[in-house]
Amino acid sequence: MEFLAQFHPKVIHFAVSLLIIYSLLEILGAILKNDFLRKTAHLILFLGVLSALGAVITGNQAKDAFDYWNKNSSDMVEMHETYATITLWFFAALLLVRTFLVLKKRFSLTLNYLFACLSIVGMFFVFQTGERGGKLVFEFGVGTQIKKQIMEGTTEPEHKDSIKTENDNKQIESK
């Protein structure tokens, strides 16, 4: 299923944006005591969890499709994967509990404040996941065509300083 790997850079942005929008709507719904915002937050949370699931699936495929891991990039992808999994499970749990409470007509304003606070915690997980994903691309070149070409020896980088290798990281650590 390497086919799915190519969609990770596209799918992940939906998950990030939807989960952030959910958090903002949850917070605004609580502060403004607005029922429409609370219902919209619930819908956006559902869509965010679905897109996060897609991001995790495509991300796992992208990890398996990339053959050029070194120690540092491998450690970073493991941290990225851990935070992505935590993010998915955290928001999925919020969705399940929130849906249960709404269906039982027990989702009160007090619980709305609690969910608003929890959504801020969730945004922290989204940030941590994205921070590590960004480093994988911008520091290690993971998933980029130029990195693949360099590793296969079919091209030389125009700016060798822009692509970190394991050797470069050892030199940096020794300084």
Give the topology, please.
Elements: H1 8-32, H2 35-65, H3 71-103, H4 109-138, H5 145-152, H6 166-174
Describe this structure in words.
The protein is mainly alpha-helical and 175 residues long. It has one domain (2-142). It is built from six helices and no strands. It has helices spanning 8-32, 35-65, 71-103, 109-138, 145-152, 166-174. Helix 2 packs antiparallel against helix 3 (71-103). The radius of gyration is 20 Å and the shape is elongated. The model has no long low-confidence stretch (mean pLDDT 86).
Question: Which tags fit this structure?
Answer:
175 residues, mainly alpha, 6 helices, 0% strand
Determine the mean pLDDT: 86
- Main beta sheet strand tally, sense and closure: none
Shape, per Cα inertia axes: elongated
Terminus-to-terminus distance: 42 Å
Specify the number of helices.
6
Number of strands: 0
Topology pattern, helix = H, strand = E:
HHHHHH
Low-confidence stretches: none
Helix-strand makeup class: mainly alpha
Rounded Rg: 20 Å
Provide the β-strand percentage band: under 5%
Helical content band: over 70%
Number of domains: 1
Summarize the structure.
The chain has 175 residues and is mostly helical. The protein has one domain (2-142). It contains six helices and no strands.
